[in-house]
Amino acid sequence: MYRRLIGEEVRITGHGGDEINAYLARPLGPGPYPGVGVIHHMPGWDEATTEIARRFAAHGYLAIVPNLHYREGPDASPDDAAAASRAAGGVPDERFLGDLAGALSHLASLGEHSGRSGVIGYCSGGRQAFLAACSLELDAAVDCYGAFVVGQPPAEFPIKMTPLVGRVGDLRCPLLGLFGNDDQRPSPADVDELEAELKRVGADYEFHRYDGAGHGFFATDRTMYRPEAAVDGWERIFDFFGRHLGGDRGAA
Amino acid sequence: MCSYVTKKAAVEGSGKGSGGWFRLSSVMTYLDHPYHSPYEHTLNIDFLNEEKGPGARVAVELTPESARELVACIEAALAAAPDLAG
């Protein structure tokens, strides 16, 4: 456990050369530390996500959370920016990838960076983590209950989102998937379908599924929080990143 | 689960946000994860004026039961004075 940390807002160069903001949490030591890109959920660049970044920092990672809604509200509160993003149709995949790549480049520019980086995303960020794993040079990726990796979004769907299962052959790094069996998006059948595809292409992956847990079981400030699944999930995450990023394997 | 499903409509009227009163141009409703309420899903309502920027927003996050109560209240209020409600 690293007890001396710093958490701060930084400016990074995102998609299309745009300057956006990000939250960076890191241990106050010489390193080397692996990097983790933390992808926030649709409600935005919120307190809960920055708390996750600090948790990674406390375990010896440089953790960065790019504000994917920055352009919709550079001076707005994260909840207002999230609403504006939703009203505008959500975050385009290409823009997300550019922003995450910029965030990871920022980590790589830090003197304490070990040279290895992973990504983790929750909810809509879980889908985006999978997309990043198929698109960017990463060393590990964690998809926490991301919907629409498989399955077609419903008709009249307002958010720009396409299924990614066809990209499974492009997966460039090991994948950890954590899912609740009571979730409907992704449903257990969706997870089965994704797993079958991963097996078919011989991907390096591991899935863990939790009974009695639904969507968002890591969210400590929500009624869907499931301590047993969340505690086990954090252990899986730190073990996975420990193996693939060379980070601290200690449980939360 | 995330529903993502979002319904929008144009509205006329005013709302009071963190910067005071402003004219409304649209309303957006979605049954999805809230920002503040401690529930898995809430019926979220954003009254917006998109021309004025993202801060021109009046937001509520209601449980589905509360949202239905709100709908019933609105319908009852409108029905009570049909000559005024148009």
Structural account:
The complex is a heterodimer of chains A (252) and B (86). Chain A has 252 residues and is of the alpha/beta class. Chain A has one domain (5-245): Alpha/Beta hydrolase fold, catalytic domain (Rossmann fold), CATH 3.40.50. Chain A is 33% helix and 23% strand. Chain A has six helices and eight strands; from the N terminus they run βββαβααβαββαβα. In chain A, strands 1-2-4-3-5-6-7-8 form an eight-stranded mixed beta sheet, sandwiched between helices. In chain A, a hairpin with a 5-residue loop joins strand 1 (5-13) and strand 2 (19-27). Chain A is globular, with a radius of gyration of 17 Å. The model of chain A has no long low-confidence stretch (mean pLDDT 94). By secondary structure, chain B is an alpha+beta fold. Chain B has one domain (6-85). Helices cover 24% and strands 44% of the residues of chain B. Chain B contains two helices and four strands. Chain B has a four-stranded antiparallel beta sheet. In chain B, strand 1 and strand 2 form a beta hairpin. The model of chain B has no long low-confidence stretch (mean pLDDT 92). The A-B interface holds A 41-44, 46, 72-73, 75-84, 86-87, 90, 123-124, 147, 153-154, 156-159, 161, 183-186, 214-216, 221-224 and B 1-6, 8, 26, 28, 30, 32-36, 38-40, 46, 48, 50, 53-55, 57, 59.
